[in-house]
Amino acid sequence: MAPNEPGPVRLTWTQAAQTVYGILRYTDKKDVFSMADVMGYSGHAFRITIHRETVSPAAPTVYSPYDLMGRTFEWFGFHVEKIGIPTPASPEQLGQFITFIQTSIDAGIPVAGWDLFVPEFGIIYGYDHERQEIYARDTEKDGVIKYSDLNNRKYNFLHATAISDSRPIDLLTVLGQSLERAISFSKGKYQKPDHEPFRNGLDGYDAWIEAFEGGNINIPGNAYNLAVIADAREFAVRFFDSFREKWTGQSALVRRLLPLAHQAALQYGKVADALGEMRSMFPFPHGGEPNQRDQAERAIDLIRAAQAEEIRGIEVMERMLTLLEEEQHADRSICN
Q1: Cβ atoms of residues 112 and 123 within 8 Å
Q2: pLDDT score of 6
Q3: For the CA atoms of the chain, what is the radius of gyration?
Q4: Separation of alpha carbons 326 and 322, rounded Å
Q5: 128 pairs with which residues across the strands?
Q6: Taking 70 as the threshold, does the pLDDT of residue 199 lie above it?
Q7: Rounded-to-integer distance, Cα 256 and Cα 37, Å
Q8: What is the value of pTM for the model shown?
Q9: Is the peptide bond before 88 cis (omega within 30 degrees of 0)?
């Protein structure tokens, strides 16, 4: 199978979500989910993870591929399979990895891969077994990886995620799962001990302030994290703004959800505004001067403003989740 895909395009700074969106284009749900939908339903629109000492660029991807992509595919109605192999891998292990990729591509669906041309997620969409090469695309490049080069990636790990067996889904159920996960993440429920010194959710804002106060910020790392988080909040606005168009039903539940979605969009718009001003101070890739005292003080003010508005946005999402849970409880009562 020869490469015939378009070149790299950045639709969002959250490459895990863009990879999900790209693979969905090959499925029966290609017209169901926009990029904003994927960002919102996956919870990436509401994520923030910060290294409290240096604002390391590793922060957005310190989670497992299942957490970053696999769960979203499952919510969207797909069976998910994955393979992970440490490198240098044996010939047998490489054979298993290549067969895993080929099986999905032969079924018409690309696979998500890690560390293809840059240490991020991307799509493996083709292969030529006679030439011993796979065809892949991420934000850096659309090109060829020789089978013999799979052991020579930047990180000592090969990973791929494949999906199959699409089934019907209820979007209100997906929305409820997404809101519950986003709220829990924001409140630190999924902070793992092995993520020290990273902090996620609302605690991530405090960690960011701590890093600015410490004056030892990784300049490109800060710019990268800021690009990811600011972009995410802009997608949060687009996600909630789309409700009025997408949720066209006239049920009592939908009529109650729509004004809350509008309010959530307004709140996350304020978060995005604060982070957008900060992004203009520390643009990617050169990153400005975050360790200069006057710059740090202004950044801390903007982080506090963003955090305060996000707290209000989470409160609106909690009200939306309560409505959905009340509806589910009422449905169960009727069935019983």
Answers
A1: yes
A2: 55
A3: 21
A4: 6
A5: 133
A6: yes
A7: 20
A8: 0.93
A9: yes
